[in-house]
Structures are given as C-alpha cells and as structure tokens.
Write a structure and sequence with these properties.
The protein is an alpha+beta fold. It has one domain. The protein has two helices and four strands. The strands form two sheets. A two-stranded antiparallel ribbon has the order 1-2. The chain has a two-stranded antiparallel sheet with strand order 3-4. Bound molecules: zinc ion (ZN). Zinc ion binds next to loops. Zinc ion (ZN) binds next to loops.
C-alpha cells in the first residue's frame, strides 16, 4: 500500500498529509523553502507560527 510517488507529493508541515505538487492550490515560500498545504486553513496555521512548523520538521528528520 506504500506506492506514493514521493517526487510529486510533499508533506503538509501542519497536518502531515501528502499534497500533490502539481495539483496544490495552497503553497507559499518561507525562508527560501516552498511549503505546500492541503488547505488554506493549514497555510494560515503555518503562517501563524512558521518557525514552529519548519523547526518541527527539521527536528523530526534529525531524530529519525
Ligand atoms: Zn493540511
């Protein structure tokens, strides 16, 4: 069941859903990185506290 195309899908840093880059309607650049969101709601949450979400993602990577 794990047959996602990771090259096309990117994780929504807020809720953890995978978003298809070519179909994403909600994306924005922060600190030189483009983030994709499943919804406008998630994008708004991200920009409420962008450091929380971007740091969170980096911390996850280093602990795995
Ligand atoms: Zn989301």
């Amino acid at each position: 069941m794990e047959e996602r195309e990771y090259g096309k899908e990117i994780k929504d840093p807020v809720c953890g859903l995978y978003v298809n880059k070519s179909e994403a309607e909600n994306f924005s650049e922060y600190d030189g990185v483009t983030y994709y969101f499943c919804s406008l709601e998630c994008m708004n949450l991200f920009f409420d506290d962008p450091d929380h979400y971007s740091v969170c993602e980096a911390a996850k990577k280093s602990s795995e």
